Amino acid sequence: MASKLLHCVDRFEEAVACSGADMRGGNPSPGNIAVSHQNH
Protein backbone atom coordinates (compact mmCIF):
# COMPACT_ATOMS: atom_id res chain seq x y z
CA MET A 1 0.00 0.00 0.00
CA ALA A 2 2.77 2.44 0.87
CA SER A 3 4.47 1.93 -2.50
CA LYS A 4 1.18 2.65 -4.32
CA LEU A 5 0.76 5.88 -2.35
CA LEU A 6 4.31 6.99 -3.04
CA HIS A 7 3.84 6.20 -6.73
CA CYS A 8 0.72 8.40 -6.82
CA VAL A 9 2.53 11.23 -5.04
CA ASP A 10 5.45 10.98 -7.45
CA ARG A 11 3.11 11.15 -10.45
CA PHE A 12 1.31 14.15 -8.97
CA GLU A 13 4.57 15.99 -8.27
CA GLU A 14 5.72 15.29 -11.84
CA ALA A 15 2.45 16.70 -13.20
CA VAL A 16 2.81 19.81 -11.04
CA ALA A 17 6.43 20.26 -12.14
CA CYS A 18 5.36 19.99 -15.80
CA SER A 19 2.96 22.86 -15.22
CA GLY A 20 5.83 25.01 -13.94
CA ALA A 21 4.73 25.11 -10.30
CA ASP A 22 6.87 24.23 -7.27
CA MET A 23 4.95 22.33 -4.58
CA ARG A 24 7.83 22.16 -2.13
CA GLY A 25 8.97 25.76 -2.31
CA GLY A 26 5.74 27.43 -1.26
CA ASN A 27 4.21 28.15 2.11
CA PRO A 28 0.75 26.85 2.99
CA SER A 29 -2.04 29.30 3.59
CA PRO A 30 -3.18 29.54 7.24
CA GLY A 31 -6.35 27.57 6.47
CA ASN A 32 -4.32 24.60 5.17
CA ILE A 33 -2.07 24.11 8.21
CA ALA A 34 -3.00 21.19 10.43
CA VAL A 35 -3.30 22.07 14.09
CA SER A 36 -2.18 19.56 16.69
CA HIS A 37 -4.60 19.21 19.58
CA GLN A 38 -2.24 17.12 21.73
CA ASN A 39 -1.44 19.94 24.16
CA HIS A 40 -4.85 21.56 24.29
Structure in words:
This is UxaA family hydrolase. GO terms for molecular function: hydrolase activity. This protein has one helix at about 1-20. By secondary structure, it is mainly α. The model has no long low-confidence stretch (mean pLDDT about 80).
Structural class: mainly alpha
Number of strands: 0
Helix content: 40-55%
Report the end-to-end length measured between terminal Cα atoms.
33 Å
Major β-sheet, in short? Answer: none
Tell me, what's the shape? flat
Poorly predicted sequence stretches spanning 5 or more consecutive residues: none
Percentage of β-strand residues? under 5%
Cα radius of gyration in angstroms: 14 Å
Order of helices and strands: H
Averaging pLDDT over every residue, what do you get? 81
The count of helical stretches stands at 1
Oligomerization state: single chain
Key attributes of the depicted protein:
mainly alpha; about 40 residues; about 40% helix; flat
In brief, what are we looking at here?
This is UxaA family hydrolase. The chain has 40 residues and is mainly α.
What order do the helices and strands come in, and which of them pair?
Blueprint: H1 2-18
Organism: Alicyclobacillus dauci
Protein name: UxaA family hydrolase
GO molecular function, one term: hydrolase activity
